[in-house]
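This protein record is not my work; I was only asked to verify it. Where you disagree with what is written, explain briefly why. This is what I was given:
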Amino acid sequence: MAAKRKKLIVIGIDGGNFEVINSLISKGLMPNLTKLKFSGVLSSTIPPGTAVAWASFSTGNYPGKTGIYDFTLVNEDSWKINFINRKKLKGKTLWEMLSENKIKSCFINIPLTYPPDKINGVIISGIDTPSTLNNYTYPPELKEKLKEFDYEIEVGGLKEKSDMVKKCVELVDKRTKVANYLLEKDFDFFAILFRESDVAQHFAWGGEEVEEIYKKIDQFIGKVIEEEKNSDVIIISDHGEEEVKKAFNINSWLEKEGYLKTTLKKKSLFSIFGINRERIYRILNYLNLDFLVKMVPRSFAKKIPTKDIDFEEAILTKIVDLEKTRAIGKRAVKTAQIFLNTEERGGMVKKEEKDSLKKEIKEKLENFFAKNKIKALVQTKEELYGGAINAPDITLYLEERGYDILTYFTGRDIWGIPREEATHDTEGIIFSNLSLQLKSARIVDLAPTILRYFGIKEKNFDGKSLL
């Protein structure tokens, strides 16, 4: 009788980082992770965003090929802003390739899986799912079963930070129960992402809830190691995380340098009657109706006043004077994405001026950060993404630890206080019981590694197998 093929289980700790993990290991609070013999740094994408990095995990390619640069995309030929999902992800996915090769797989909570594809196995879509009211599972009937677990995808609505973090702890338990239920089924490959570690770190860096979430994930890892003895295990994070104390406001800098102009906006009816986004969210939360937030079209929600105007608000409410503006900054984690106001977008930057303007802004930014003795990487779309469509014209990534990006408008200082307590960095983590080549390991290497594990011929990926 032939030996049963081993399973491969991948567990994602969103924002997992050695600063937190090593501290918990030293306290004896993550004993199961230490049972995995091999570990190392897993390099993320630029920007090191959740959606961007998981797109690279799922395809083995960097953003220039996946077409994913943030949670929202700016059209190349207009200022239209689109929210990403599976339909925006370019290239063949890991779940498709496994399914084509008769590998039965299960994907839980992986970003860019909504709407779910029909595969040989199971998909429970991730953060790009509008709500659990949508058909977010394959097979579709699994959705009814998940109701028994009171399954949730993300922390809904805008709650107090402390409430959000407490909710994250609850969501780990719900996700774990679903994972345990599905692990009893017959699968060759199993992948689950715990997003809660990332959300909690953003709002409660170093807090007790962050510690609790890591401990619960470690307990799940221990259960997998103990009960799935005929399995190999890989633990990864899509990116790292670091505490931040200071932030650079790219739009204030662009305005100061003369690349961006804003207009004084007349008061809307919302403002006249004292309506703002924060007030609406507080009321919905009080009434336990915060699930309605995701049902409101983004284009409408962004027109409701908020305390801090950023990129999307500025475009939708016409705070940016597009007749006098040459460049605008959009925030991605620890990254500023700069878009030129080109003729294709109805703007003032002519086609023949684009390259020289990109070079000019890039050199000015490099000089600015060099003068301030802050490590920063500034690259054009050609340098970083091979000139891919819809990619930012210029990307600024702050390599210096402790710094984040702001994109507020309306007369803000160039330097400010970060929106959150922590943000992402490019140094993630990888642990495994498999002997992997972990020197210079990258998030794009996971798809080729998984395919090779199952004897599937590797294709033309940006990544390479770690086996």
User: Anything to note?
Assistant: DSSP finds 16 helices and 19 strands in the chain.
